[in-house]
Amino acid sequence: MNAKNIMSKRVISVKPEASISEVAAILHGKGFHALPVVDRQKRLLGIITETDLFARSFPMIHLPTYIDFLKKSKLDGNLSIKQRKSFEKLTQAEAKDVMSETPFVISPFISIEKILKIFQKNKIYSLPVINNDKKVIGIITLSDIINLLSKKKLIIK
């Protein structure tokens, strides 16, 4: 059995211009760990994970929550020009600003055993499946594989 047999073909993805708040809403609302970022032709540009939504300099700050807080606090009247520019830049952050540009990807013909090794070795939970044109044709999550194993629809050798 290989990736094309178990991948989800209905992939929810975002464009690079998607706002951080929009990305967070999809991740949270769908219970996803990651979203592919694609161009108009559905070619993979990168991936954005839950971890990417935390400020790299301050990993305890969840960007969508912080942005929402800043918008609601109406602090901008008391901000210096420099602070105001930083605030505007942060509130306008897009998927392309925080995505990983070199995500792990797999072909539809890779074995389930190899997929599991990729998950384990790299401590990731989602893998976009791409064709020769780099178009996203599916996605496989660790949950998908565990679900199949629990239903005994998949046997790993």
Automatic annotation (TrEMBL):
- What Pfam families does its record include? CBS
Q: Which SMART domains match?
A: CBS
Write the record's keywords in alphabetical order, separated by commas. CBS domain
Q: Which residues form the CBS domain?
A: 7-65, 99-155
SUPFAM superfamilies on file: CBS-domain pair
Q: What's the protein name? A: CBS domain-containing protein
**Source species of the chain:** Candidatus Falkowbacteria bacterium GW2011_GWF2_39_8
